[in-house]
């Protein structure tokens, strides 16, 4: 019998005696989305109920809809709800609930996404779909992107030939034709996984492009002429101009430095990548931010602490929930941190800014920069109001290059140049190359400097046999002559090298296995390769004035270095770029045991004839500052 029952007179099945609701897990899942759908479309199907006495009715089938109605109207509402009454006992009512739960078939994801795409084709906007089905905007965009996939991709997903993650990766392809072409190619190569799909479409897995796009804003990047292919699932976006993107990141971070100094009164502020590797050891003033909470913030902090405590004590530990609450607590404290320092403290201390792993601005406050570090840090950016003048570090009397701390970013770039040079030189010595590989395979799998799975810096350009499947490559390898196999193994050895340093308190790039390998290579080959890989323009545009002058002194003599001292930093850098490399000079970070350049060769104090002309031109036109920065390690 069909009846109308006031909402307040309906009870959940699991609240009725022994319980007539078979569903235990997931009772509360997706209730908000269900409520949104009921609000948009109204009640389509009656609840199945039994008489519970005293005017109440227990729900045997439809308990999640009951929860949604309560969310919409409130527990004590008189809203009439359509019900079908069955005069049954608890056992039969429980059977109704169990039968419905077991026989209910969820839509296959492909069917669901196709249905959303059909709604859009029939005029539904993304906003309307979100409201009607209780989804956030991003969920709607994801669903529509999957529903718009080519029929070939959707059918493969429906048949189980590809997984959901692979289908998501195909949304990065521009159109159905591109999707189908890539699908057919990877099917032949038996390589249909999301990593291969993304790589074929131009995703750079070792770069935080998505993080940087989130930081500058997708609309802002497009407004500057960049094009973004948005990844709706992994946020590994594809950009048309990563140099522009990184320049925009640098601009925003620099503006944040200016704001901290000019508007908030900090003595100094710097971008993390421009600081020396040792900055994390600088003294930091700690403050108790909780003392500076407003009454509202105090209430909020107590609520979050209570929620975190409940999560920790719960029988079913929810790691994601704990992380979410922890992030909210950290965000609350971070918002209070700027006002927790007095004006007097700010006048003596500074801040370091960076981009965090989520693409948000990260500011660390209250850092006391040692005076010795000022020369290195000040040269990394244009001084802002309130910043102390640049401290000039005198040249050492020993004739050896002065070594203020290099920035972490420059150390990383030099380590890449060292790896490239070592690969170039190593493959010229087959015996040593094979020995390096054998040593790696015979040693601990975490041996620094060599990645035996060929994940080194040269791996991306390595194409050994041409096959994708192991069986094909084995056949090709067996067909090779022994000498040809050795040649390929030598290339593998070179490609397996990886001497990269990211964030380290030690800037000695030739320490450990990297130095061991480089010192084993014939010095003449290694020195030549190092000079070919060394980017002098990047180096001299990135180091402090004192280091450029020290290099000039080592390479060209003290007299010429003294002549340059009166010039501005960009002019000195331009002079060094034009005149130092021809002498064979290399920075200390790249000097192997068999290094044969200045100051080993006695400096003459005179410019090489071929360099005089370029020196004059360089003095007139300073070189542009290099803004391109390397990718941060994930």
Q: Summary?
A:
The protein is an alpha/beta fold and 634 residues long.
Helices and strands in order:
Layout: E1 2-6, E2 10-11, H1 31-41, E3 47-53, E4 56-61, H2 63-73, E5 80-85, H3 90-103, H4 109-121, H5 126-133, H6 137-147, H7 151-158, H8 164-170, H9 176-188, H10 194-200, H11 209-216, H12 218-223, E6 228-229, E7 238-239, H13 242-262, E8 268-271, H14 295-313, H15 319-340, H16 343-346, E9 350-355, E10 361-367, H17 374-378, H18 408-426, H19 430-441, E11 449-450, H20 470-478, H21 482-495, E12 497-498, H22 513-520, H23 523-533, H24 536-540, H25 545-556, H26 558-564, H27 569-579, H28 609-620
Parallel strand pairs: 2-4, 3-5, 8-9
Antiparallel strand pairs: 1-5, 3-4, 6-7, 9-10, 11-12
Can you walk me through this structure?
The protein is of the alpha/beta class and 634 residues long. The protein contains 28 helices and 12 strands. The protein has helices at 31-41, 63-73, 90-103, 109-121, 126-133, 137-147, 151-158, 164-170, 176-188, 194-200, 209-216, 218-223, 242-262, 295-313, 319-340, 343-346, 374-378, 408-426, 430-441, 470-478, 482-495, 513-520, 523-533, 536-540, 545-556, 558-564, 569-579, 609-620, and strands at 2-6, 10-11, 47-53, 56-61, 80-85, 228-229, 238-239, 268-271, 350-355, 361-367, 449-450, 497-498. Strands 1-5-3-4-2 form a 5-stranded mixed β-sheet. It has a 3-stranded mixed β-sheet with strand order 8-9-10. A two-stranded antiparallel ribbon has the order 6-7. A hairpin with a 2-residue loop joins strand 3 and strand 4. The two termini are 62 Å apart.
